[in-house]
Amino acid sequence: MSSDASLPSADLPLGFQWGAVKAGIKVSGKLDLAVALAPGGANAAAMFTRNRVVAAPIIVGRKHLAATGGRVSAILVNSGNANCMTGEAGIEACIQTCVAAAEEFHCIFDEVFPSSTGIIGVPFPAEKIVAALPSTSDKIGPSAAHAELFASAILTTDTRMKVARAIVGIDATHPDYAGMEFRIFGVAKGAGMIHPQLAAAMPPHATMLVYLFTDLDATPAELEPLLALAAEGSFNSISIDGDTSTNDTVLLLASGASGVKLDATGSGRIGEAFANALGLVCNSLAHQIVDDGEGVTHLVNLHITGAATETDARRVAKAIAHSPLNKTAWSSGDPNWGRLLAAAGYSGVDFDPNTVTVWIGPHLVLANGLRVPEFDEAATHQTMLEREYTIRLDLGVGTAETKFLTCDLTAEYVAINADYSS
Amino acid sequence: MSSDASLPSADLPLGFQWGAVKAGIKVSGKLDLAVALAPGGANAAAMFTRNRVVAAPIIVGRKHLAATGGRVSAILVNSGNANCMTGEAGIEACIQTCVAAAEEFHCIFDEVFPSSTGIIGVPFPAEKIVAALPSTSDKIGPSAAHAELFASAILTTDTRMKVARAIVGIDATHPDYAGMEFRIFGVAKGAGMIHPQLAAAMPPHATMLVYLFTDLDATPAELEPLLALAAEGSFNSISIDGDTSTNDTVLLLASGASGVKLDATGSGRIGEAFANALGLVCNSLAHQIVDDGEGVTHLVNLHITGAATETDARRVAKAIAHSPLNKTAWSSGDPNWGRLLAAAGYSGVDFDPNTVTVWIGPHLVLANGLRVPEFDEAATHQTMLEREYTIRLDLGVGTAETKFLTCDLTAEYVAINADYSS
User: Fold this and answer.
1) What is the arithmetic mean of pLDDT over A190-211?
2) Does B251 or B342 have the greater pLDDT score?
3) Domains of chain A
4) Cβ of B353 and A51 within 8 Å?
5) Would you state the pLDDT for residue B1?
6) Which pLDDT belongs to residue B203?
7) Which of B246, B324, B337 is closest, CB to CB, to A121?
8) Reduced 3-state DSSP string for chain B
């Protein structure tokens, strides 16, 4: 596992190529058209935002996955324009780019998976993408440098690219694949409008885009539950501003080029190893997304324990994670546990304030609803000056728990998002 | 109706006295202990926050209202300490102040209604209140100056006091009260942590405190539904930061000193006039609370129409009102309707983006899910530079609607709330 910017090419999954060019969609003139190819095709599983307002590429992408039964040969991602709230014309424009990509990359139209990120409601410049496609040919390849082109081109307000990878070696006792390896490579973009609420086969407009590539051999039906599980503990357990984007997309492609086949049920040794590695890659990308959140100066790991149900624990975590009063307190390292309790109190979850225990980092703050005599405010403040720390809140009700990663709210976030027509 | 700082004393309801002193709870040394008396007693109705975490005075106040069947002779409000998350000791401390107030003001212990606002989780200095009570005697009276003392002492981060009043004259054709008058006077505090979710007879810790005084003659049972109705359209229809406080309280007292009696059912002419006037007073106070919100530079009236149900309309309004991306866009007057649609889209309400229409002030922005050709961005930006304007979003589903008042999110809000241990 690593998220280094410089990737050894040997660590990348086989059966994929990446690349990017400048299509002139971004006013900045930066890379804005990214392509990933699976020349032999790949099996796919996807998750989309639960937002009721859906960008055109999501509508088209879902249709394509349905039509092919989960096969993808090319991913076409543009940044700079989300192609959302663009009506029928937006869908037509998206289809136009898929047609051109199918022609350029010699694949079936339905096997092109489109994604867009950027501003909402601005007519989609399909002609720029169509015009730029031929120039991609000498920018596409299987090397780390190519993968980095892809990772760079999908960014918008991100300050750095987000990649993670895993290599799984199969031990010598395995009857079929002893000594063989398979790989996972993940690429993400995010920054603001991050509170993904992903659901399998549901509509999106994605500001969080995640592409996961593996050379494991697995069917779409096998990939789907494994992706859902990995996303639940990672992308669905983070929040920057509580705003769920209209384009969030997570796409997992399996080329099969490693020669290693997922166990039939996905529950055997290969399945377990893949699930673990996929979870690590997703967690790393989710962490990188929050870490690069707009104006973020502190990352807070909320650990809610002692809940009656996991659903309750998540409701408390989200209420705290979305509370401006808590997020601003974190920006100055203020151990304001009253605001933690107030947010838990309006989460809708039933608990007795007199059984609540709170720790900030290693410091016990509150026990049985009262500030403990040994509470060391200065030391707690010191902990909260660190870039990342954990707040644990035990409700004292049951044994269910959850973890949720979030961040502070700073004047810098306001400045970035108040920027006229950002 | 007026919210002038200088109140003609003649406009205040009869049967009440107000006052305030410095008890030394606020570090600033400002007025921090407010008292309102109903020497002949008053009938009461109250609403409290839905927060699961409840301040001590809420627990005690609810118990007192239950014990007396809704009678109040004295309101005792301190600012500077919320007496919340203070355990049994906090409840004992609150009771101690009620005992002292009952003695000082010669009333029944149960008829003292306590309120606290300020920091959470700090031991409650009952002794300061008990010590200060005797000094209130020459500060209490029925004049406008006395009422202003009360209105000032309950403030915390507010920059100005919030008062509103109404005088209802009964026309010459009324069989019993021709030519008579009754009065309503309302006082509020608020600023941050404002997203009241008030419910009758439910627990609180209140950052929004509202006291309504009328000299109408009405029973607690008559007052309750009228207060609920007025609160729903005012205090329950505003949001500054989406944080629901642990102490929100709205208390309505009726002294009966006007000699005008509410119609038995509350639905006759007097009831109607009272309901209207109470609504106006509550709306004015709610508006003043948002207008004085922490760091607020723009007030936005969200008018959601065309919804299937009022509940749907309110869900959309709240999703937009709590969206940091929308709130920051408003701070710079950015007509970013994409963010409006994105928030509506994740509200959980079912609608078709292609039937949505959006107006910002008088400007049509979006029709049938598409930006209209005549959209005038510069003029819309100009409208959004005004202190207050309306955004109307029609879902195109049904005929239900709602209005919701909210505000922008500014760097100043972050600065105020990031201030260490504010």
Assistant:
1) 57
2) B251
3) 9-291 (3.60.70.12), 299-418 (3.10.20.340)
4) no
5) 38
6) 27
7) B337
8) CECCCCCCHHHCCCCCEEEEECCCCCCCCCCCEEEEEEEEEEEEEEEEECCCCCCHHHHHHHHHHHHHCCEEEEEEEEEEECCCCCHHHHHHHHHHHHHHHHHHCCCCHHHEEEEEEEECCCCCCHHHHHHHHHHHHHHCECCHHHHHHHHHHCCCCCCCCEEEEEEEECCCCCCCCCCCEEEEEEEEECCCCCCCCEEECCCCCCCCEEEEEECCECCHHHHHHHHHHHHHHCHHHECCCCCCCCCCEEEEEECCCCCCECCCCCCCHHHHHHHHHHHHHHHHHHHHHHHCCCCCCCEEEEEEEEECCHHHHHHHHHHHHCCHHHHHHHHCCCCCHHHHHHHHHCCCCCCCHHHCEEEECCEEEEECCEECCCCCHHHHHHHHCCCEEEEEEECCCCCEEEEEEEECCCHHHHHHHHCCCC
